[in-house]
Design brief:
Blueprint: H1 2-17, H2 42-49, E1 85-93, E2 96-103, E3 106-110, E4 115-116, E5 119-124, E6 128-133, E7 136-141
Antiparallel strand pairs: 1-2, 2-3, 4-5, 5-6, 6-7
Length: 145
């Protein structure tokens, strides 16, 4: 019995102490391999590292001063912004119509008198919407989407 307990004790000591010999399985810290694979392709490198060139859009002459030497300011027309308005439907609350619009991708409810990028909502009907800006009138028909 003492012999059996001695063998068990020796086995426990060996198992908890670990191995003392180098089996070649251990990797030294300075010889570790990186997880990324290296790709040697100059065309791919050019494609990744070369930035896209975008065309520069200028709304006004950058060399023309905004304020003249005499102190008069120069009026510059605002750049045209494409407005995407989609008339989706109406909601009648008491005696007021509210228009459900998608303006540049965002949905919302609008009432008569609200402004959308410089245009004022003049009239809301069940099948069309009338926007005004200065002397311009813009009619937008209700879409089925």
């Amino acid at each position: 019995m003492k012999f059996r307990s001695l063998i068990i004790l020796l086995g426990v000591i060996i198992l908890t102490a670990g191995c003392r010999f180098d089996s070649g399985m251990l990797i030294e810290p300075n010889k570790r391999e990186s997880n990324t694979n290296r790709i040697d392709n100059p065309q791919l490198a050019k494609l990744i590292l070369t930035p896209k060139r975008e065309r520069l859009r200028v709304a006004r002459d950058p060399f023309k001063p905004l304020v003249m030497k005499s102190g008069k300011s120069v009026t510059v027309a605002a750049p045209k912004v494409e407005m995407k308005v989609q008339y989706l439907g109406t909601l009648k609350v008491s005696d007021q119509n509210k228009a459900l619009l998608r303006v540049n991708g965002k949905k919302g409810f609008y009432v008569t008198g609200d402004k959308i990028q410089g245009y004022t909502i003049n009239n809301i009907d069940t099948d069309q919407l009338i926007l005004t800006q200065d002397d311009q009138k813009l009619k937008i028909k209700r879409s089925d989407d």
